[in-house]
Amino acid sequence: MTDAREKCILAYSGGLDTSVAIRWMSDQLGYDVVALSIDLGEAKDLRAAQDKALRTGATAAYVVDARKLFVENFAFPSLMTGALYEGVYPLATALGRPLIAKLLVDLAREEGARAVAHGCTGKGNDQVRFDVAVAALAPDLQVVAPVRDWDMGRPDELRYAAEHGIEVPVTAESPYSIDANLWGRSIESGILEDPGEEPPRDVFQWTADPQDAPADGALVEIRFEHGVPVAVDGEAMQAHDLVEHLNEIGGVHGVGRVDHVENRLVGIKSREIYEAPGAAILFAAHDALEALTLSRDVMKFKRIVADEWARLVYDGLWFSALRHDLATYDRAQDSFSHTAARGFIELFGLPLRTQTTVQGALGEASRRLLPDKLERLQAPGEAPRG
Hints:
The protein folds into two domains: 7-71 and 94-171 and 330-378, Rossmann fold (3-Layer(aba) Sandwich), CATH 3.40.50.620; 177-316, Argininosuccinate synthetase, chain A, domain 2 (Alpha-Beta Complex). 41% of the residues are buried. The chain is 42% helix and 16% strand. The chain is α/β, with parallel strands linked by helices. The longest helix is centred in the first third of the chain and has 20 residues, at 92-111. The strands form three sheets. The chain has a six-stranded mixed beta sheet, sandwiched between helices. A four-stranded antiparallel beta sheet has the order 6-7-12-11. A three-stranded antiparallel beta sheet has the order 8-9-10, covered by helices on one side.
């Protein structure tokens, strides 16, 4: 009789990387992979991704609608802080990562898993955000990063998928790397790596070219309660619906485009294009509200807090004690060594792992965010969860 295989919870999008990761982690690392697809407002068919995960080899698959959690607990607190990284980036992707990490940890506890996994490469900020957040929340869990660890580029992944009967998206490959949630859409790579090149029109999907926007503009009235937006044009809305509504209005009028060369945590500069129409409208409205209500000294201090909050979030330190205290005060031609990232993250996350080990969970991070009732699809022949 063989020993039971350990479980690993994979943040699963249904794309090429994470689809290959299911089979690769099962074959190469010996894990039973449980797929977790999280809806932060990307407009993907995550139910289809759930079914696909099972067909690809996952032993179970979950879908969680986390839009409300994301906006209320991550986006709006950052809005109230006024946090814009380097003065322009509303932190959409950076804010989504700690929530995904928290849900991975919650499900790992539910499933009795020993590890969690993400699909980040060894070159960007997101690997740090995931690894460090999980280390803070659950130092006992191993973090697996198959895309960072395997020796495969995209052509190799496509061959691997074909050899193992893994379904891959049939759409044409985008020249850009894109991430999106309700708070914003980020686009990088391709021709955008040259700061001297104007972004091609096909980069933008959420926002109209300002030259093509309605000439007469639009008047939008936003009501705040205790600094939190609660209604648009007199209509009360849930947080995620309000942001989605403003994304549509702002997008039509070409609001919320950002073209920025930013300093990444891992030590390189990266030209990024952002679309965040809803966030742009809300930041402008919130600034106007504060101009009416805050004294000069308070506004001066708030800018310091906003910059520090933005840095912490961007650097993946959402669950740090400092961020919590701030909240309380209401391959070819690639010379970057992907494998070197593991040692950097180990050192970078050491203070958080030590802090969590000594002090326990931090503030709201100890509260379970995973919904009580989850639909669990199970692969045929898989033994019931103990």
